[in-house]
Amino acid sequence: MSHKSFFMRHALTAKALVAVVFWPSLFFFWFLGPFVFFLLSTTSSELCPRLETRAEFLAAANGTLPMLILQNLIYAVPIVCLALWNRLSPEPARARHITTCIKLFAVAAVIGAVWDYGSSLSCDGYGQAFFSTAWQMTSYLPIASLLINIPLYVLVFSLGRAYSTRDDITEDGVVHSRQNNP
User: What is the pLDDT of residues 122-150, one digit of tens each?
Assistant: First the structure.
């Protein structure tokens, strides 16, 4: 077995392992996760009526910060998978799209964190008297988040599909073995 065929076989295995991580993380973290994480990363609705001072509202909101950080790290798994796929089989066009994904993800993560934190500060309306109206305006951030996340999801999904599809199979389903001609 030549060195080149050994690398190609291991690269195919590595790409398959990345696919095994990418698709479940994309589905569970990006499509189902926001519903769970929003509940875990904001101040509980049961806690809001019991808070009485600005310091209590700040403490409750600051208590959600570790979950916000964890949430964004978990959400980054599909983006990391795309970067790994690009390292295994680099293509300049896809690399530019991955860079776009990273930028969109960074913006979406910041908007999501500000929205979650602002939701914790306003705390179902109970905290509105203690904070500026700018924090109350964070309730409109899901609209901006949606405008960023839709193209991000489409781009990540299409890149994931392109990377996880074997490149030695043609559109008619025929497998072409690679010949390593010196």
Answer: 887 788 788 888 888 888 888 898 899 89
pTM exceeding the 0.70 threshold for the entire prediction: yes
Say how many C-beta atoms besides its own lie within 10 A of residue 51's C-beta.
19
CB count within 10 Å of CB 99 equals: 12
35-78 tens-digit pLDDT: 666 666 666 777 888 888 889 889 988 988 898 898 889 889 99
Q: Tell me which long-range contacts 174-179 makes (C-beta under 8 A, separation of at least 24).
A: 178/8
Q: For 27, how many CA atoms within 13 A lie in the half-sphere containing its CB?
A: 5
102 CB-near residues (< 8 Å, 6+ apart): 79, 83
